[in-house]
Every structure is written in C-alpha cells, then in structure tokens.
TrEMBL record:
Domain SWIRM stretches: 1-58
Listed GO CC annotations: ATAC complex
The protein's name in its UniProt record: TAD2A protein
Highest taxon, organism lineage: Eukaryota
UniProt source species: Agelaius phoeniceus
Xref: Gene3D superfamilies: Winged helix-like DNA-binding domain superfamily/Winged helix DNA-binding domain
Pfam family, one: SWIRM
Length: 58
C-alpha cells in the first residue's frame, strides 16, 4: 500500500503510461527518473501498473 493523494497518483500514472507508450516499454530506472518521489513508492507504483497492464517492461 502506498500513501498518496489521488491527484498525485493519477499524475504519476499518466507520466509513466505516456513514457511507456513513447518508448514501447519502461524500466524501473526510467520510472525513478520520471517521478521524483521515494524510490520505494516508485517501485510499488511501477509494479502495480505492470501487474494491472497499464505499462510493460522494456
């Protein structure tokens, strides 16, 4: 569970999905560079979005 306000989550999700669509996939290191928050939160968001099919691994 990641404690984020909904607006922040939606902003991070949109940034990761857009970058994934541009690149054809997204690595965790790229996700960390895109969203400047705690790396543990970034990992949880990244893993969740992959599990739910919003993004794919590069």
């Amino acid at each position: 569970m990641v404690r984020l306000v909904p607006g922040a989550y939606l902003e991070y999700k949109a940034a990761l999905v857009n970058e994934c669509n541009k690149q054809g996939g997204l690595r965790l290191a790229q996700a960390r560079a895109l969203i400047k928050i705690d790396v543990n939160k970034t990992r949880k968001i990244y893993d969740f979005l992959i599990r739910e099919g919003y993004i794919t691994k590069a």
